[in-house]
Amino acid sequence: MKRPIIGLSANTSDDGLRIDIRKNYPESILLAGGIPVILPHPCSGDDARLLAEELDGILFTGGGDADPVLYGEEKLPQCHEPDHDRDSFELELFRAARELGRPILGICRGCQLINVAMGGTLVQDIPSQRPDAVPHYQSRDGTNTFHSVNITEGSLLHGIIGKDLIEVNSFHHQAVRDPAPGLAVSAFAPDGIIEAVEGTEGSFLLGVQWHPEYMSRIREDMLGIFKAFIKEAQK
């Protein structure tokens, strides 16, 4: 069976001279049966369209905060400085991939990017805007879990995981606030923070707020997220 080519978005290094990505993202794609390709930025909208045409699926990875202006808000002091090149490229890439019917998986920032691209909003800073929330940024290694997540029965995610309740790691200070039209919430943390969204129609579209790539070698349910994505990309 064909091994699909999966494009992976990347961070900009702190010195602004490199794009980089943690190894466990491409490793998870390889484990699930895909071939990972790291995508450059900045790229024009035309370049993003050409990339989407050539790729079988897109993984939007974790990273820094999206610019709040993209969802109609002023930046709070707790919100990190945005990477405008990355924001612009990923939005263009998402729209092209969605139009072409490519499967899309978003992780952490990637989950938030999906929501913003489709017209939703974000909690800019959970500790200051949702002070009653449980902590969502752990100091322990990502192979350790940090809090539970309730998965909505009947959702795409529930079908992949096969459980109502799982334990996940957590490395975020932002989250989906208002889900975009065309997205359904498929998982919540115990404090009500949204932990996953998915498309209500069209091609495979799933965003999770935790980091399954840290656990894909040790947990079948976390690898299952990547396997489900790759299976769709093989079609």
Core attributes:
single chain, two-stranded antiparallel sheet, 235 residues, alpha/beta, Rossmann fold, 29% helix, 13 strands
Main beta sheet, described? 9 strands, mixed
Computed structural class = alpha/beta
CATH homologous superfamily, by name? Class I glutamine amidotransferase (GATase) domain
Please report which band the strand proportion falls in: under 5%, 5-15%, 15-25%, 25-35%, 35-45% or over 45%.
15-25%
Instruction: Sketch the topology as an H/E string, one letter per element.
Output: EEEHEHEHEHEHEHEEEEEH
**Residue-averaged pLDDT, rounded?**
96
Distance between the ends? 10 Å
Gyration radius, in Å: 16 Å
Q: Rough shape?
A: globular
If strands are numbered along the chain, what order do they take across the biggest sheet?
A: 4-1-5-6-13-12-11-8-9
In which range does the helix fraction lie?
Answer: 25-40%
Number of helices, counting only DSSP H or I runs of 4 residues or more: 7
CATH topology: Rossmann fold
CATH architecture: 3-Layer(aba) Sandwich
Question: What's the CATH class label?
Answer: Alpha Beta
Number of strands: 13
Number of domains: 1
* Low-pLDDT segments, ≥5 res: none
